[in-house]
Amino acid sequence: MTRWWQFYQRDSKKKRQSSITKDDVALLAEHMDIFTPRFSHTLSFYEGITYVLAWSVFVIGFKLDDFATWQECLASFSLEALTMGLTLWPCTFFIRLQQEHLQHVSIFRVCLRIIITTVSIGIVVSAVILFSANLLGVVDLDVKSIIGNTISHALDVLTLTAVILMFSIRRYKELRLLKALFDKQLATQNDHIKTRLAPHFFFNTINTLASLVETDSDQASELIKNVSHLFRSSFSDPKESSLEEEIELCEHYLAIEHYRLQDKLVVMWDLPDEDLIYDMSITSLTLQNVLEQTVLHVVEMTTKTVYINVHVKWQNHIVTIVVSAEMPINTLISPNTIKENLSFDVQQSRLREHFGPSATITTDTVKNQVISTIVYPLHDAFD
After folding, report:
1. Where does 185-291 show beta strands of DSSP type E?
2. Chain centre distance of CA 380
3. 322-364 pLDDT per residue, tens
4. If exposure means fewest CB atoms within 10 Å of the residue's CB, which of 48, 74, 80, 300 is most exposed?
5. H-helix or E-strand containing 253?
6. In which element (H, E) is residue 191 found?
7. This prediction's pTM
8. Are strands 369-377 and 360-366 parallel, antiparallel or unpaired?
9. For the chain, percent helix, then strand, then coil, each to nearest 5?
């Protein structure tokens, strides 16, 4: 009992620590990296009762000719349902206890072990219930009849277990296929973002570095550190990062651009408390790409100073990040033209893959401001 409780606590702790932002299909598929049917997660308590009762009706239907009265039929049905229920539910906990030991076992061996377990438990449960019912006078069976009924129940358990395993294998393969498609799509989008990050930014950075090497070696050294950190982060595998890491990535990017743009770029941050930011997450490179496009299509299009304000808010389980670029008053650039050039379709698609269809990235113009807004749901891990 202690072992089961320790496993349950460890399993529950893993659930609480798992991502609360990923798409349900992807999260479920991650838990299906090995084939271990988890009936207690697949079926609710009431659904399990319904299946047991339906199966009992199915089995008794083939034995109607053997009953002389409806009382015998009802008693046999009750014993069948009770025996099947007491057979299958302990099996669900056994499977959970054995899950960690089945990580490197083939599907065939997992199915074989489950069948042996359920049939063995079925034989024991059936024998105990039939002997108990016989002693209580519910049924009148001799030892030979009890053995025959026990074998018959074992065959019933074998059949039902095979049906459930067939369903589980099909579901497992479907989830693995969905997971593969999900990962492939995100990988494609990540590659798309990385290629969009590289061309213009890479050449501008090289030109800036070449200039600093001749004029200021200390600043050149700092620039190389920022570039190294930025590219290491942007080409890493994680598709989701903490907001704290994303902001740090943005600061490295802005530090690199500052060497080239100097006083033309002024960025001001309005962030929540550090404890709150620590619990927040976002798809990687999303905020960085919004800032990059703002710099590319706004700051670089004018010779005057552009003020960019980044405001982050997490309220009522909704994260709102507003990036507003204040255009110079006497400029010939049209905010509407800038709005047309800003495109966040890929970032929005990735955001929705993780946070659901309500996640959006929009761009608006208000007087002399170009405002890009990132909105997505994010629930606290303890909600």
Report:
1. 240-242, 265-270, 281-283
2. 15
3. 999 988 776 667 777 788 888 888 888 888 888 889 999 999 9
4. 74
5. helix 243-261
6. helix 143-215
7. 0.49
8. antiparallel
9. 70, 10, 20
